[in-house]
Design a protein that fits this description.
mainly alpha, transmembrane, 39 residues, membrane, single chain, transmembrane helix
Amino acid sequence: MSYKVQPLKALSRELKFATTSIASIAFLIVFDIMSLTKL
């Protein structure tokens, strides 16, 4: 059973990293749009 737990932990860590990078990219895109609309 322990061999199934390890990939799950790795997957959750990858998922956390993915969501963090997606959130930062989305924030940058929104920031760019806001700065463009100000012009």
